[in-house]
């Protein structure tokens, strides 16, 4: 696998480039904007996810000999375009919403400025990353809210593409998940990984007892024993008899986990294992997590619903040309029209910090900033180079945690509804 | 990015390995089976997708120094396990459904035989690939059926993770899509790629006329002009005036594409451009495609719905330990119980070739094979090596095309319902 991101690109980006190089328009200064027209499924907020990966992808967007040979052999573009691509390196400006920031319909999530040629070719990979990662981010944030401070672990790798899995693990951590099962995410992003055993481990052994003994011998009594391979209450009994009352946790992966968690808690307490945690997993989504709030659950393992965006697997963002040589442009044939001109956004907030509205304005016509308002975009790339002191994943994680607190109380409701704050478009 | 697939793995696979190496059970001969308990969303059939990628992933499942260092540093496993992983190379047997084959609930899609140690560690990456690719495959096959012989192009890269996009393009081709927009899929899998221009190209220019002129100069009159940037009928008029009646195609990407396609056809015909094709795109799924059957549409561009599995983004497959040292094993605590023992499948068919049922039987208790029945699994890996003459992507594409013809007529209905043929479990 090449580390170049240059071919993670739609064919037509390069044919447009070829035509524009030929007629001279390729060098016109342009502004492209990433935004979404709506939040999926009646969600109340979106979460900017994948910005850090976008910046990496832009840095690695280079056409080496392997990429050029492929384009030449298949006559995707002409010789002139190949020559131009050989030296490609984005030299423009990118501003955007930092990762973990909330967004709403019309929020200018990313603004890319440069010549048409250098900006248009980035469309596909930028959208791929933002559409995937932001979809996961919104689902993950809702789950963390629903978990209400309890530990929540990402374990969905097996339910999605093997590379999406790594990115989803990163985003889950951004959103406040405690850890992931995905080892590659641990390597690539320094995220804590965790895991103990599956049912196969118990089935492999001659008895549940020998499986538990083996796991404790290898991982210590602080480990989590999976107790639902045969009979849960016998499993719990055996787990405490084997590990002692210092057992770290029991995990239940099937059945009506609410009822079972309560029974498990009572049984553990009656056995004296009052400090042993109860962890549940198995087809949990934000609604199931919320429904378990009153139950004695200490931790959740979440898989499928996280990595599939819990019903909204893509964030539906678009990358639109909004300005050419300082002139606003927009498609006009349908309701899908967009607003021309480079934009920026202000998050208006009350003195309490509660967000009131998202003001999207022309970049050159900034309205007055109230005492608690703030600019949402930050500079990310200047003249092709990453700006200094871009936020780290840990900082973005804290950003999201704080941002959710600023939502009006209705904003954290899991039910479908309107965006938590309205978007107000000024000018244009 | 490393080409090793070894860390695309859940942490617990390796802690299970460590425990099992410690207690000696790691070397027990095991059989793991991949299957799904149900088809998502009332689908009538599943399509095996990703098998070729699974075989590649197994070959590249090696722990190099970079992977081992990561595991050592984070104390995922002990020294003994690191030593064992250093020499890891799958040496067992894999049988499975070839790519493009249909499957049903309980079909033994993949059977992995080897020691517990060498088979358990493959679980995550095998499931990631099969769950993603088979989800896309089923959606893609339904779209191709709905298109009923018309050309259909995959252009969903921007709506999904950048690497899922490449795999989705491969699967779309498997399912009968004509081409993809994804250049990396072209490089990696030799799939035809295609594309011309987006609205940005028109907006970049001083007028629609100059955009069309430029595109035709670069790509010839056989190109596809996107005619809905401003006003569709004026766009079509301009397109034919600019390219002549030999224009290849017009594309409409917005609005009620059925009505607009009809109007476009009439207008093109009236202008003498009777050979110019009408291509539509924009939020099409299998239902929208089917609803356009009566309209004069020559080709479809499909994006979001394809790459998100059209409502079923994961195939819900599991990888279950079913046999240890020749002894069937199965979890027993809940309704999610599975059937123990290594299995295989026979597709029972009528003389006409129509499939009648999926017979899943113990691998050692094969029922008699009727004259039109066939074994569904094929050998894929023997003693760790790929068998000779594994099918190519083109052969698998043809396999799926033929397989869909064997479904009972209800099987191709897009509406929700029961699987097209029942699964019958023999013995066990």
Automatic annotation (TrEMBL), chains A, B:
Mod. after translation: Transiently phosphorylated on a His residue during the reaction cycle. Phosphorylation strongly increases the affinity for substrates and increases the rate of nicotinate D-ribonucleotide production. Dephosphorylation regenerates the low-affinity form of the enzyme, leading to product release.
UniProt xrefs under CDD domains: NAPRTase_A
Nicotinate phosphoribosyltransferase N-terminal domain boundaries: 7-131
Record lineage: Bacteria, Bacillati, Actinomycetota, Actinomycetes, Pseudonocardiales
Keyword DNA-binding: no
Domain Nicotinate/nicotinamide phosphoribosyltransferase: 152-342
Protein's pathway: Cofactor biosynthesis; NAD(+) biosynthesis; nicotinate D-ribonucleotide from nicotinate: step 1/1
Pfam families associated with the record: NAPRTase, NAPRTase_N
Name of this protein: Nicotinate phosphoribosyltransferase
Catalytic activity: 5-phospho-alpha-D-ribose 1-diphosphate + nicotinate + ATP + H2O = nicotinate beta-D-ribonucleotide + ADP + phosphate + diphosphate
Gene Ontology cellular-component terms listed: cytosol
Physiological role: Catalyzes the first step in the biosynthesis of NAD from nicotinic acid, the ATP-dependent synthesis of beta-nicotinate D-ribonucleotide from nicotinate and 5-phospho-D-ribose 1-phosphate.
Signal peptide feature range: none
Gene Ontology terms for molecular function: glycosyltransferase activity; nicotinate phosphoribosyltransferase activity
EC number of the protein: 6.3.4.21
Biological processes per GO annotation: NAD+ biosynthetic process via the salvage pathway
Source organism, top-level taxon: Bacteria
Gene3D superfamilies associated with the record: Aldolase class I (3.20.20.70), nicotinate phosphoribosyltransferase (3.20.140.10)
Protein family per UniProt: Belongs to the NAPRTase family.
Group of enzyme by EC: ligase
């Amino acid at each position: 696998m090449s580390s170049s991101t240059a071919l993670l690109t739609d064919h037509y980006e390069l044919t447009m480039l070829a035509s524009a190089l030929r007629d001279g328009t390729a060098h016109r200064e342009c502004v492209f904007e990433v935004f979404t027209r709506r939040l999926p499924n009646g969600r109340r907020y979106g979460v900017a996810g994948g910005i850090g990966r976008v910046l990496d992808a832009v840095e690695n967007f280079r056409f080496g000999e392997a990429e050029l040979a492929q384009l030449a052999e298949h006559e995707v573009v002409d010789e002139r375009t190949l020559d131009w691509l050989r030296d490609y390196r984005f030299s423009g400006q990118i501003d955007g919403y930092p990762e973990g920031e909330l967004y709403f319909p019309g929020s200018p999530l990313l603004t890319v400025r440069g010549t048409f040629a250098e900006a248009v070719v980035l469309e596909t990979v930028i959208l791929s990353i933002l559409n995937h990662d932001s979809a996961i981010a919104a689902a993950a944030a809702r789950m963390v809210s629903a978990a209400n401070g309890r530990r929540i672990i990402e374990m969905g790798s097996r339910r999605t593409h093997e590379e999406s899995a790594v990115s989803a693990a990163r985003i889950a951590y951004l959103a406040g998940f405690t850890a992931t099962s995905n080892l590659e995410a641990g390597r690539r992003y320094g995220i804590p990984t965790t895991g103990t055993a599956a049912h196969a481990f118990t089935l492999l052994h001659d008895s549940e007892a020998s499986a538990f003994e083996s796991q404790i011998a290898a991982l210590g009594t602080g480990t989590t024993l999976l107790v639902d391979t045969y009979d849960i209450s016998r499993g719990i009994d055996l787990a405490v008899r084997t590990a002692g009352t210092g057992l770290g946790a029991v995990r239940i992966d099937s059945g009506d986990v609410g009822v079972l968690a309560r029974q498990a808690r009572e049984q553990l307490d009656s056995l004296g294992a009052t400090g042993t945690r109860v962890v549940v997993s198995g087809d949990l989504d934000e609604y199931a997590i919320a429904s378990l709030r009153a139950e004695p659950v200490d931790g959740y393992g979440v898989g499928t619903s996280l990595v599939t965006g819990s019903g909204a697997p893509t964030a539906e963002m678009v990358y639109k040309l909004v300005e050419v040589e300082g002139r606003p442009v927009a498609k006009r044939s349908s309701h899908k029209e967009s607003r021309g001109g480079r934009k920026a956004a202000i998050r208006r907030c009350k003195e309490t910090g509660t967000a009131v509205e998202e003001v999207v304005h022309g970049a050159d016509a900034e309205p007055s900033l109230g005492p608690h308002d703030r600019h949402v975009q930050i500079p990310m790339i200047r003249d092709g180079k990453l700006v200094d002191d871009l936020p780290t994943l840990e900082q973005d994680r804290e950003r999201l945690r704080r941002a959710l607190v600023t939502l009006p109380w209705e904003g954290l409701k899991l039910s479908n509804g309107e965006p938590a704050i309205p978007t107000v478009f000024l000018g244009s």
